[in-house]
Amino acid sequence: MTAYFIGLMSGTSLDGVDGVLAHIDAQGQVKVEAHAFETFDTPFQAELMALNQSGPDELHRSSLAGNQIARRYAEVVKALLLQSGLQAADITAIGAHGQTVRHRPLEFDADPARQQAAVGYTLQLINPSLLAELTDIDVVADFRSRDLSAGGQGAPLVPAFHHGVFARPDACVAVLNIGGISNLSILQPNGDVLGWDCGPGNALMDFWCATHTGQSFDRDGAWATQGHVLPELLGQFMAEVFLHRSPPKSTGRDLFNPAWLQAHLPADTPLRTQDVQATLTEFTALSCASDVQRYAVKAEELIVCGGGALNAQLMRRLAHHLPDLQVINSGKRGLPPLQVEAAAFAWLAFKTTRRETASLPSVTGARGARVLGAVYPR
């Protein structure tokens, strides 16, 4: 039987909440019925950005931010129900990712004397109980921590969904999600799946653009096209140790943040701001393309989703670095770029409610597949 699920995703780009309402059949096939987006206002974006770093009164501020996230998510749910003509009672569950502000898997708490491996932590801000109260719908949240407890990275979570939507029986397919951070899925025709975070997505580009133009993002990469790539600076960016680690691996704003960028810029030689933007755009394209070349040599196409798929200059640079691949927007494969991750969390909620595993040890490095998420009844 077909059931309706809602998926909600606010990613490391910090731009707002994407939500989809989808019906999912018993085989897990997803069809999106409605899509809605709620923008984060500038003060709230700034607060979420600040919470990525240590600061005063963090517990208090994080709790209040979690309440705010729940309220914003509830507004998206309301919009989705209005669009679709469905009622809350028609929805089986909401899959709510929350806002990641820290992601430090497999760090800090190892104790060799007790044969205790490091688990680390991942933190997504949301109050799922409040979201259930506001929407009168069951909520599934906290998708990452179960995988961490099994020795995994807890991310990325979307490759299993990418396989269900984009895999082909006749060819290897690569799927690149460019949100604030970029993650890559390699889908083999025999059903094998690999996936990992491959570096920065929009996070650094958006920060630089907002700081120097007042615009929240570089629409179509137009500002970047006014600059020139700085080879020496690009080389420094590409020397980042994370980029050269082997999967499984995941990252976030814990690494690729304004402080990271500032540490790579020359202190005594001002650079043209549009040249830095051009270099950041090239950095994002090159770090992603390098992983495709390294791990997906037999791929026939690269399907790009997330906000980065709408950056024309970034797409051109990806195509330049991958001349033997067809580089396409995910909309050409049936799911528009801004709907993919939200649809993934609708699908993850579907898997949770059926107590089916949704993690892939080949992606996260966990000891085995696990049922992800915790259910907060309405």
Outline of this structure?
The protein has helices at residues 42-50, 58-84, 128-135, 145-149, 159-166, 203-213, 231-238, 241-244, 258-264, 273-295, 312-321, 340-353, 361-364, and strands spanning 3-9, 16-24, 30-39, 91-96, 99-105, 120-125, 139-141, 172-178, 181-187, 193-200, 299-305, 326-329, 374-376.
Shape: globular
Strand order of the largest sheet: 3-2-1-4-7-13
Fraction in beta strands? 15-25%
Domain module tally: 2
- What is the overall pLDDT average? 96
The CATH H-level homologous superfamily of the largest domain:
ATPase, nucleotide binding domain
CATH topology tier name of the largest domain: Nucleotidyltransferase, domain 5
Could you say which structural class the secondary elements and strand pairing correspond to? alpha/beta
Please tell me how large the radius of gyration is. 20 Å
Give the helix tally: 13
| CATH architecture field of the largest domain | 2-Layer Sandwich
Taking pLDDT < 50 over at least 5 consecutive residues as the criterion, the unreliable ranges are none
Structure, explained:
With 378 residues, the chain is of the alpha/beta class. It has 2 domains: 3-154 and 338-376, ATPase, nucleotide binding domain (Nucleotidyltransferase, domain 5); 159-335, Nucleotidyltransferase, domain 5, CATH 3.30.420. Helices cover 37% and strands 22% of the residues. The longest helix has 27 residues, at 58-84. The chain starts with a strand and ends with a strand.
